[in-house]
Write a structure and sequence with these properties.
Layout lengths: L14 E4 L1 E8 L5 E7 L3 E4 L2 E10 L9 E9 L5 E10 L13 E9 L3 E3 L34 E3 L54 H6 L3
Parallel strand pairs: 4-10
Antiparallel strand pairs: 1-5, 1-9, 2-3, 2-8, 4-5, 5-6, 6-7
Length: about 220
């Protein structure tokens, strides 16, 4: 007698929904880097870019690590006009997969933080992270070019790094979420020193001849 059994379907990876996403921003002109947090549905301004974070997911320690976020990025020009330049998912493990194309600024996801809510994903929604989350029921449609918002976004600015090393040594500014071998423009790798110009040695003063030296040499 054969006993039939049901084929087990591989379970999809669970995910944790966090209230805050952590980003790093690079100013390509000055080479300065800043790390800033963006809460869910909060808008933060970095330079001329305004970043709105919608959701941030990570995975439990028992699953393969993956940190993702869905953001919307708009650029504000000198006339106060808004233009959406990015809307989609970012992956902390692959910053260049869905990168923001901008000549001055670069933004990438580094982590999610805050006590999260565990969400069990059924097998048929294994790729749900690839679909943008639905807007809230009371949300209004966002146009491509919208008027200036009434609520002023929170601004973040890079801070000059403090260094207390030896004189002549240039510090390396670490880039969160990226390999340490990569250095931003305008910086010198750690451990190298800036060559300082050496002062020339003064020429020796001519020695005065004594009376007996002059007498021996016949004056």
């Amino acid at each position: 007698m054969l006993i039939p059994f049901a084929a087990s379907t591989p379970a999809a990876a669970d995910k944790i929904k966090h209230p805050t996403a952590v980003f790093s921003g690079l100013d390509k002109i000055t080479g300065r880097i800043i790390s800033f947090d963006v809460a869910t549905d909060e808008t933060v301004q970095f330079g001329t870019l305004q970043i709105t974070e919608r959701v941030c997911y990570s995975r439990p320690p028992t699953e393969a690590p993956q940190t993702t976020t869905f953001i919307e990025v708009e650029e504000v020009d000198a006339g106060g006009e808004y233009k959406k330049i990015f809307s989609g998912w970012m992956f902390a493990s692959s910053p260049g997969l869905h990168a923001i194309e901008h000549p001055v600024y670069d933004i990438w996801l580094t982590d999610c933080k805050g006590n999260g809510e565990l969400i069990a994903s059924p097998p048929d929604t294994a790729d749900a992270e690839q679909v943008p989350p639905p807007p809230p029921p009371n949300a209004t449609p966002v146009a491509q070019d919208k008027p200036k918002p009434k609520v002023k976004p929170r601004k973040v600015e890079p801070v000059e790094p403090q260094f207390s090393g030896e004189p002549g040594e240039v510090p390396q500014q670490a880039i969160p979420g990226r390999p340490q071998g990569l250095t931003p423009p305008g910086t010198i790798p750690q451990g190298r020193r800036v060559a300082q110009p050496q002062q020339p040695y003064p020429a020796p003063a001519p020695q005065q001849r004594s009376f007996w030296d002059s007498l021996r040499s016949g004056f």
